Amino acid sequence: MKGIHPSIASHKLNVFPAARPIRQKIRRFHPDRQRVIQDEINKLLEAGFIREVSYPDWLANVVVVPKKEGKWRVCVDYTNLNNACPKDSFPLPRIDQIVDSTSGQGMLSFLDAFSGYHQIPMSPDDEEKTAFITPHGLYCYKVMPFGLKNAGATYQRLMTKIFKPLIGRSVEVYIDDIVVKSKTREQHILHLQEVFYLLRKYDMKLNPSKCAFGVSAGKFLGFMVSQRGIEVSPDQVKAVMETPPPRNKKELQRLTGKLVALGRFIARFTDELRPFFLAIRKAGTQGWTDNCQNALERIKHCLMHPPILSSPIPKEKLYMYLAVSEWAISAVLFRCPSPKEQKPVYYVSSLADVETRYSKMELTALALRSAAQKLRPYFQAPSDCTETSPFVAFYTNQI
Which residues belong to any copy of the Reverse transcriptase domain (predicted)? Predict the structure, then answer.
């Protein structure tokens, strides 16, 4: 596969000069796992993604992890190499903002690059630093592999470079997630033509079997986006609904993580999660109480009919309700297209720590400040004309 030309993008490790190379000792694998590893090596060799190497300074082990449907994924443990590399601070887009800009569109196309990371070449000077050991030999990557510390930043930099003329207008990109958005079918055809032109220009290949063209809705960055708005992913709801009461602290933390990911869709979310935070402090299952179980049931009930979040409309007024309690401050931003219709845009909630001793009025002011910081991008409309500036009404009311 031809892939991206090195003059356009290549992955450089920039290993710290003082870092001492580490060569991991080979791990032992069951014969069945060895066959899985060898099959993967053969595929990578045939594709031209790896090559054999001798006397490498850095050496990592492969790891075989289970996939869905009983299959296996072969990865490389680059922990030591990653620790010797500085962090690439290239910015990633804010997920909430690009999800907002994707919803409300009449037609969408979701694109998936064919072995996207492997389309970016490694810098020749760094190829052998990616060396890994298997029961059948030593190899290194000629292309950017998964597992490297800054691989995501390198990929995002390339995508930003390729789609720069279209990002924010007809295309949104988050690393390897690409969506083309349009109001109408006619616009969408033109937008796809622009995208395909850029893909051909940079020799970026797509995987047709994983692309969806001209659809009205789809999953994007963990959310369901459509012309109606933003909905919680059914997979996330199913994961919560099927989760039994946790048996230990690790399971409790895992459950809490699943729930935090859904916080945008649940009003006064921090209030609902407070029993979980208290249980974690009490070392897991010993702290799991009836309050925890009741809170979990309330959240499950809410997720049975989660709200459909809307995107702000230019020049349309925005409203915000505030709510305070003993231990939390909350807010909801919403549109009001008609007197009888309220469409939530974003729920926000945060724990109050030492502020729990504040008066009701002080907590309300804190809630306003916290919400204004969290929701700042929604309020950054032009201020030179009152008609284009968002009008925000604040109410100390229950959400």
Answer: 46-225
Q: Would you say residue 248 has pLDDT above 90? A: no
pTM of the model: 0.81
In angstroms, the CA 9 to CA 12 distance is 10
* Contact in structure between 109 and 215 (CB atoms under 8 Å): yes
Please answer whether residues 347 and 332 qualify as being in contact, where contact means their C-beta atoms are separated by less than 8 angstroms.
yes
Cα–chain-centroid distance for residue 392?
A: 29
Tokens for 215, please give them: 């659809």
Sheet of 217-220: strands edge to edge? Answer: 217-220, 223-226, 230-232
Separation between Cα atoms, residue 54 and residue 1, nearest integer Å: 25
Going by C-alpha positions, the residue among 9, 73, 4, 12 that lies closest to residue 43 is: 73
Distance of alpha carbon 148 from alpha carbon 166, whole angstroms: 28
Q: How much is the pLDDT for 156?
A: 96
Closest CA to 129 of 121, 119, 139: 139
If you write DSSP's letter for every residue of 172-240 in order, what string do you get? Answer: EEETTEEEEEESSHHHHHHHHHHHHHHHHHTTPPB-GGG-EEEESEEEETTEEEESS-EEE-HHHHHHH
Q: Which H or E element spans position 157?
A: helix 151-162
User: Please, which residues have CB within 8 angstroms of residue 186's CB and are 6 or more apart in sequence?
Assistant: none
pLDDT value at residue 387:
31
**Is-contact 396 331, C-beta < 8 A?**
no
Instruction: At 123, list the tokens.
Output: 């810098």
* Half-sphere exposure of residue 261: CA atoms within 13 angstroms, side-chain side: 18
Q: How, if at all, do strands 394-396 and 318-324 pair? A: parallel
